[in-house]
Design a protein that fits this description.
Beta Polymerase, domain 2; five-stranded mixed β-sheet; 6 helices
Amino acid sequence: MGSLEVSGDALWTRMERAVEKVDQRLRRAVALLEEAEIPYAVVGGNAVKIWVAQVDESAVRNTQDVDILIRPDDLPRIIETMEVGGFFYRKTANVDMFVETVNGSARDAVHMVLSGQMVRNDDFEANPDVESCADGGEFRTLRLESLVRMKLNSYRLKDRVHLLDMIEVGLVDEKWPSRFPEVLGTRLQSLIDDPNQ
């Protein structure tokens, strides 16, 4: 077995920095939106972190993505706000995003998720509006039920992992499938019944 190119303190530093960069990017973006009083909601893996941390901080899973739900009509104002704040706007693969350097990677971007629109053509329903928010003090995220519904709608591998995290800490249980349309409820029930699938 070969050895790692980076090891020891340098490896620890890189791992810690990777997590810190995501957290700083999220804080910086939402601070700009808060200051400009633009409606938004943190979604994706960071929203799951916010909810899971309420119950069990040891179950919090790190994420590389920074996803923020916005209204499409607010995008021009958001572009102006984010650019004044030092971000650079880019549209890649039909996704509106902001990077921190001119040549920044989409992997290290703040991704804008548009409310009322489908992410993929085969999604069950469109994204919710930003109004269904919970206030986290420094930022806003979706109410838990809306977040779970978004995750069930998208249902990629990472969405299923996020749903399992919420099930594991007791945020979501066997009473939840009946809250959703049959397609989404069936998806949730299958994860509750067999978390190892």
